[in-house]
């Protein structure tokens, strides 16, 4: 029809209209294409900026089946390289901080002997300016040794730990890192005094020592240090703790009161960890604390203006400090650097580390498929009685498969197996069960032990442990038995389960619902990805990616799997079987019930740890 001479002008003008319209559309689209997620909240840059990680627990490969946390450690290194360049181009400073817990949670860290043999060389590729130790570096000696010989050695004066000692030779204990660091930032010349603390942890191996903060502040070295570095010599104090920053965790409050005696108006920034949440707390008008989640799901961002006047008001705090929680994915990383092509984003070092990770995963066979899982099984997205609860799966199907390691172990006809829910670290997803899955769901290699007690006592233990709440930790040798999800700083506020204003931020961990990096503008609420919705002392605008909150359920301290005869007498000898990790708790619970037991009555039962039971279940096609 365009051959018709009369129609040609129309055709031309139609073509023109289409072209113009297309051009207009295209002109509007580039902003959309250049920035596929305009809904992301931008970072605020200040005089000094911090990038913070904590509780990485070996997740350096990224979350392979959750796109929203799919960046790997190499991508993270590229990201921070650009951020540092941006900061320096603006004449600002950028420092990297990590708050510990690098083991126990992923095949990359836990499938090697010693633990961390492949993951720590990957972790230390990141250029941290300040880092400290977590409790997972102290349960097992091999982890402490690696911390001392690999991590502390590599970072040298940047490895700051003011209350943990390591046995360097028989009976000789030395600080595992530097007790403090005093330095001046390269761009703004900010004089920083940095210290590092682990919470009052008592399950450390015998070759290490942890001094509680309450004891450290009585020591002469810290009093001398603060007397030497008088306020006129310090612009900013940085405390890097493997300690939750929430107001209800007393240790930082004690430390803060102590520091303020020497530095009444110096800015103090705390970095925290351990309870695996995103959190930000305002301690006073010149002091705040940031905690940046867990498992390479979050990169924390903290900015401080150093030149804000000394007057005290709420807006002063907001003018001084800013915080963000960045989702650990390329989409967020690239957005915050303003770089739109991956080729430009990835740095040679970042690329090298990503290759190193792939190689390590291949060598460890982490993607070796053992079997198939028929459904998602959740930790707290459903109640523990729901068919999709991982705890129901364990108590109904997995724990009954536990057998004694050898035939000489005497068995009673009745038994109760108890596990601390903290021994489960992650949801189990539908699809292939790989070697990695085993470590992700339950990394701990504890032994099962048994004690035989009259049935009337055995049946009460779970209830006592679950009624113990937080006091349990303090009374039973500070075991920190509570699973992280119950240790949220926000859990003091009653939980609202409609998902709209959940006081503790939560993530929905289903791969089915994780979003695609190329997803368009999130304009409608129903299009938001389910994930963390953080409510902290600055409000609820901290998450760089606006998420939709999810319903979460309370998880008890322990769950049990029973094999009991309803008709037998109360005095029937009954085997209580549990991980050796919770021996003190079980003895304490029996005592509460009126049965006095000694540790010597507890005997070995099996070395088939939870991960192995799950592995076997998958291998035998039982899901
Ligand atoms: O052998 C172990 C060691 C630890 N746990 C559980 O881990 C948490 C502590 O983990 P964080 O990452 O420091 O929060 C502890 O409360 C135990 O529940 C374990 O089960 N077995
Ligand atoms: Zn942790
Ligand atoms: Zn911890």
TrEMBL record:
One GO cellular component term noted in the UniProt record for this chain: extracellular region
Gene Ontology MF, one: hydrolase activity
Pfam families for the chain: NadN_nucleosid_C (PF21953)
UniProt xrefs under Gene3D superfamilies: 3.60.21.10, 5'-Nucleotidase, C-terminal domain
Gene Ontology BP terms: nucleotide catabolic process
PANTHER family: 5'-NUCLEOTIDASE-RELATED, ADL392WP
Protein name: Piso0_002003 protein
Domain Putative 5'-nucleotidase C-terminal: 376-587
InterPro entries for the chain: 5'-Nucleotdase_C_sf (IPR036907), 5_nucleotidase/apyrase (IPR006179), Metallo-depent_PP-like (IPR029052), Nucleosidase_C (IPR053828), Pesterase_C1039 (IPR014485), YHR202W_N (IPR041823)
Coiled coil regions in record: none
